[in-house]
Amino acid sequence: MVRKYSDLYLDARKALLPGEGQQRAGLLARELLCAASGKTQEEILVRRDQYAPSDVCEKMADFTARALAGEPLAYILEEWDFYGMTLYVNRDVLIPRDDTCAVTELAMKKALYLDQDPRILDLCTGSGCIGLAIARKVKDARVTLADISREALAVAKRNAAAMKLTGRVSCIQANALQAPSAFLGTFDLIVSNPPYVRSGDMANLQPSVRDFEPSLALDGGADGLDFYRAICEKWTAALVPGGRLYFEVGIGQADSVLRLMRAQGFGDIQVVKDHNDIPRVVFGTLCGEVYSE
Q: What's the rounded Cα separation, in Å, for the pair 20 and 15?
């Protein structure tokens, strides 16, 4: 049934109101209508008393139903903003979060002071958000985006192409739990936001995360440290001497990750808090000597 733009907005807002509250329901309804119609809020306001095409009405009904089912807005819109970029996202990748800005910014600052044409690896890249943010800022960097998921790499490739960065950004399939292939060579900097949710906690995640975001990118094993352990033990071979490794970590994991890095020969290890005052980043420099606990 054909509806006016104003009615599409009001119907969606009314449907969303019980679960979202007045302000949030209105914001969501506007976002959904913009996405369904391909128009800006200003254009919709001008056309509010006009009838929308049937395909827009159908798409709006679908989007509203998906929102009511708990699907995150980012997956409905198929885009999300991160560090000044608008990234394509789908259910094959995690939605980039503000928490990840901390590790991105620290790795970026280090990369700016590396020698000419530094090689940087974004391991467990997902949408490519960290590596692409660095590539945009560090104009001579050669960035590799690596993930075990072919579907995630397709998303990362699409984002790299959209930003016209394919000349300096490559995508490879790699399992962070296994030793890297020799053909990768070595990197001046490795940055990783790996899966770090404990397996036993997966069922207790918020439904919007548990039911929609890829478990492959969330489950970090029994203690949540499987990927940190493997990367520290096996991926030092992909770092140049004096190279830097940056990790995003979950709440309460910083000290454990610090100890793992120290045991594998990293020095000058630091823990940095995010904007919420939570220890969120652990990074260190690869040294020659391995320390025992």
A: 9
Contact 250, 201 (CB under 8 A): no
The residues, ordered by sequence, that sit 6+ positions from 121 with a Cβ below 8 Å of its Cβ are: 131, 143, 144, 146, 184, 187, 189, 190, 191, 238
Asked if residue 238 lies in contact with residue 269, where contact means CB atoms within 8 angstroms, the answer is no
Nearest-angstrom CA–CA distance, 231 and 237:
10
Q: Is the pTM of this model over 0.90?
A: yes
Is 286 a residue whose pLDDT tops 90?
A: yes
Q: What are phi and psi of 119, to 5 degrees?
A: -100, 125
pLDDT at 74: 97
Separation between Cα atoms, residue 279 and residue 195, nearest integer Å: 17
Closest CA to 144 of 115, 177, 186, 172: 172
* DSSP designation for 197: B
The pLDDT mean for the chain works out to 95
| Tens-place pLDDT, residues 59-77 | 999 999 999 999 999 999 9
Percentage of the chain lying above the pLDDT 70 cut: 98
Would you say residue 178 has pLDDT above 70?
yes
Helix (H) or strand (E) holding 146: strand 142-147
- What b/e sequence results for 78-105 when a residue is b if at least 16 CB atoms lie within 10 Å of its CB, and e otherwise? ebbebbebebbbbbbbbbbeebbbbbbb
Three-state DSSP class for residue 271 = strand
What are the start-end ranges of the E strands in 2-102? Answer: 80-82, 85-87
Tell me what pLDDT residue 288 has: 59
Q: Which amino acid belongs to residue 262?
A: R
* Of 239, 241, 155, residue with least CA distance to 192: 239
